[in-house]
Each structure stands twice: as structure tokens, then as C-alpha cells.
Amino acid sequence: MMMKYIRLISLLLLSELLLSPIMAQHRDVKIVKNGPWRIEFEYPEKSYFRQQSDEWILSSHGGATLWLDSLLEGDYEISYQRMVLVDTGATDRLSDLNQFWLTREPAEDPLVTTQLKARDGRLASYDSLDLFYVGMGGNNNTTTRFRKYDGTGKRMLLQEKNEAMYLLLPNRYYNIRTIVSASGGFTSFYVDGRLVFQYQGIIPIRGFFGFRQTASRQKIKDLQIYKLKNGENER
């Protein structure tokens, strides 16, 4: 338990170093500045988080979720670079470059618009949430799937792309970009500029974002979250 708190304190301190104000023409105001961040490890005694230069390293023996503990609202873009490490690390495995977004407690829960309840890092512990989930290179790098959870425990499979071009290569940074348009009624997931998944329909106007992984060691850098200008969202 003490180690878990130490890692959490480290995350909060390091959150101040994460984001730099790099603007682009199609973006407007940056809506995230400094965390705070919250981590949930399935096996905290066998997992760790650390910063190395301008990169974050997250090593998890089992499941791990690194939440941005700030509510995101409206139309925005999330982008970052991420790599799955395969070398001599104890948890190295080419699998599960994943993320949660538009995450909420079930609609009947009074915490729905303010915070998420703490969970234990096991994938099943998130079944009660309403969220979108991409599992890139899941199941030992054999599947890339887009799911929607509705808070009832059902993991609805929206789309699946299992061809080699949609799976992972080791020790390579991927540029991940997610568009959320509450006003336009869609969310899109891009990898290296290629549209991989898209959902169109009614989506929540607010929710939480989290990095997700299972039994692997990964690097994250260059996280940017910007509010999008009206009329400049992409489909």
C-alpha cells in the first residue's frame, strides 16, 4: 500500500512537467495544463512508473490505467506518442497499446460529472463504466479492436481491424490522435495520420481520458490536449 501511494505522489509531481504549449492552426485553446494524474495498478508491488528525460515509462505486471483526473468537455483533440518496449525488461511483451476515453460512471451515479471511483487496475473492474476503448495490438498483438462499454458490463465491439498494418511493431513510436466532437456527434481514432476507427452517434459532452495497458512496458511522450474550434472538427 505504501508503494502505491509513493507512485501516486510521483505522478502528481511529474504532471507539472508533461505538457508544453505547442499550438497548431486547426486548434484553439489548450484545455489541459498540469494533470493531476492518477494510476491504478493490478499488481502495484510488481509495477512501476518513472520519468526518463521527456518520456514517461509505465511498466505493469498486469493491468494498469493512468488517468488524467480532470474532466474533458466539448470538442477537443488528444494526441501523444507511445511505444511498446521489447528488450530485457521483466514485463516486456508486444501487446496492448490501449486507451480509455469519454469515460463516465453510470448515468444514475451522482459522481458522473465530477470524478471516477477508484478501481484496482483489472480490466474487469472497468466494466461498470460508460466509455470508449481501443485495444491496439491486444491478445499478444493479434487484434486491434474498438469497443464501447455502456456501464452494464457489456463490452460492445464496434469495429475490428486485425491486419498486420493495424498491429504493433516493437520499440517504435506511434503517433496517436483522438478527436472528440460532442457537437458533431462523433469520435475518431488515428494512428500515424491514418483514420483507424470512428463512431458516429450521440456521445457524452464530458468524460475522462486514460492510458491503458496490460502486462507490458511502454513509453509515452508529447501529450497534447486542445479544445477544437467550431467548424474545424474532422470526420
Q: Can you tag this structure with a few keywords?
A:
235 residues, 2 helices, mainly beta, 50% strand
Question: Your description of this structure?
Answer:
The structure is a single chain. The protein is mostly beta strands and 235 residues long. Helix content is 7%, strand content 50%. The protein has two helices and 13 strands. Strands 1, 2, 3, 4, 5, 6, 7, 8, 9, 10, 11, 12 and 13 form a 13-stranded antiparallel β-sheet that branches. Residues 1-26 have low confidence and may be disordered.
Share of helical residues: under 10%
Order of helices and strands: HEEEEEEEHEEEEEE
Global Rg: 17 Å
Our measurement of the CA-to-CA distance between the termini, rounded to an integer number of angstroms, reads: 44 Å
Strand-pairing-aware structural class: mainly beta
Form type: globular
Largest sheet: 13 strands, antiparallel
Q: How many beta-strand runs? A: 13
Mean pLDDT level: 86
Count every helix, treating DSSP H or I runs of 4 or more residues as helices.
Answer: 2
Ranges with pLDDT <50 over ≥5 residues? Answer: 1-26
**Portion in beta strands:** over 45%
Give the helix/strand layout.
Blueprint: H1 2-14, E1 27-30, E2 37-41, E3 48-52, E4 55-73, E5 75-84, E6 97-104, E7 130-137, H2 138-141, E8 143-150, E9 155-160, E10 174-181, E11 186-191, E12 194-200, E13 206-228
Antiparallel strand pairs: 1-13, 2-4, 3-4, 4-13, 5-10, 5-13, 6-7, 6-13, 7-8, 8-9, 10-11, 11-12
Briefly characterize the structure:
With 235 residues, the protein is mainly beta. Helices cover 7% and strands 50% of the residues. The model is unreliable at 1-26 (pLDDT under 50).
